[in-house]
Design goal:
The chain is an alpha/beta fold. Helices cover about 60% and strands about 15% of the residues. It has two domains: about 240 residues, no CATH class; about 130 residues, CBS-domain (Roll). A four-stranded mixed beta sheet has the order 1-2-3-4. Strands 5-6-7 form a three-stranded mixed beta sheet. A three-stranded mixed beta sheet has the order 8-9-10. The protein is globular and about 75 Å long.
Length: about 375
């Protein structure tokens, strides 16, 4: 997911977001249903009817994906895994976890929750579809419901393929993890299978491009490419977490961070700090204590001609809990916090005193050196 996220709503406490790349999929699904699938199976209707059917089918698809990911999230929270939310993007949707499952059992139950929910939802829609047919509902409405029932069954089957990080790959990892008590080894095997399956999909997609299924081939190729990259990235993320386990945050922090005095003007702040260091946020310190933070967004809200009339103390606000961590905290906690909040730079605070700043960039430098000295971790 590389686009900008847009918040849609909250579902029982879980944030549901949409990546801008999702709109490509929404248009593609609507177009393919309205111009291909529904006219093929339901002949004799107007173009407008097919487009309404296509739009309804696309909305039903994404509601099904949200339900699928929501069930993952419910089980994850049950086992103490913090969830960032659910995000729809070009290849479907994802329940965003900031850490690995605590046990093979938690992994297994969380993984199967999605496919099981899709089967249950598909069965419910199918029964409603049959009842609607008997009740004489309009054929286009019944057609959309039949499509959504089939789609949920297909979603469950595809996700149960043993290709990490698909649900089936996570089930496989949980089994391997439980057998050998080694999550790194289990992830390595499951990720390799996921990568190979991604390559297989790319090959099949490429062959389809040069036959009679250009769009389907392109779509298979892109999904395969995404799956291959996701499987490799998942393994790398696990290695990163394992490498930082037991390492305190103070080991990676910059102990002389750039701080801003509360007494200077906003004009001086912009010239001497924002234009010099290129950060978008600075900690504000007074008498050795961290008193707040100031961001570029706050400065932009004040007219430029008034910058010389206001001080940093007037605009500084309390620092968000999502950007601060203790010096003795485990480095994996810093990674999890960065993952949950999207911040790549954290303030290291000890009893109200700013003692340093830790950045993802510096942590990755440590990881690179460790790999250089020790080989694959």
């Amino acid at each position: 997911m590389a686009g900008k996220r847009i918040h849609l709503f909250r579902l029982f406490g879980f944030a549901v977001n949409v990546d801008t790349s999702w709109f490509i999929l929404a248009l593609f699904v609507t177009w393919s249903l309205a111009r291909g699938v529904f006219p093929e199976y339901f002949k004799g209707y107007s173009t407008a009817t097919y487009w309404w059917m296509g739009a309804a089918g696309a909305l039903g698809l994404f509601a099904s994906i949200i339900f699928h990911e929501f069930c993952h999230s419910v089980v994850a929270v049950r086992y103490g895994l913090p969830m960032k939310g659910i995000t729809l993007f070009i290849f479907g949707g994802v329940a965003e976890m900031s850490d690995e499952p605590p046990s093979p059992k938690a992994e297994f139950l969380m993984a199967v929750a999605g496919p099981v929910s899709s089967v249950v939802l598909g069965a419910a829609i199918y029964l409603l579809h049959k009842m609607a047919v008997q009740a004489g509902w309009p054929r286009p409405v019944n057609g959309v419901m039949g499509y959504l029932a089939y789609l949920n069954f297909a979603l469950a089957i595809f996700n149960m393929l043993p290709a990490f990080p698909l649900d089936g790959g996570r089930v496989l990892r949980s089994i391997l993890w439980g057998l050998k008590k080694n999550i790194r080894w289990a992830t390595k095997i499951a990720s390799r299978l996921g990568s190979w399956f991604g390559v297989f999909m790319m090959v099949v997609g490429g062959l389809n491009v040069f036959t009679d299924n250009f769009l389907g081939g392109v779509w298979l190729f892109l999904i395969g490419m995404f799956l291959r990259r996701a499987s490799q990235t998942s393994y790398q993320q696990l290695l990163m977490r394992r490498s930082f386990e037991g390492e305190p945050v103070w080991r990676f922090m910059e102990s002389s961070p750039v701080t801003v005095p509360a007494s200077i003007s906003l004009e001086q702040l912009v010239e001497d700090y924002f234009y010099r260091y290129y950060f978008k946020m600075f900690p504000v310190v007074q008498d050795g204590k961290l008193v707040g933070c100031v961001t570029s967004q706050q400065i932009k809200e004040i007219p430029k001609q008034q910058w010389g009339q206001h001080t940093v103390a007037e605009v500084a606000v309390p620092c968000s809990p999502g950007i601060a961590i203790g010096p003795d905290s485990d480095a994996t906690e810093a990674l999890s916090l960065m993952g949950r909040t999207g911040n790549s730079r954290l303030l290291v605070v000890d009893n109200g005193v700013l003692v340093g700043v830790v950045t993802l960039k510096d942590m990755l430098k440590f990881l690179a050196l460790k790999v250089d000295f020790e080989g694959e971790l």
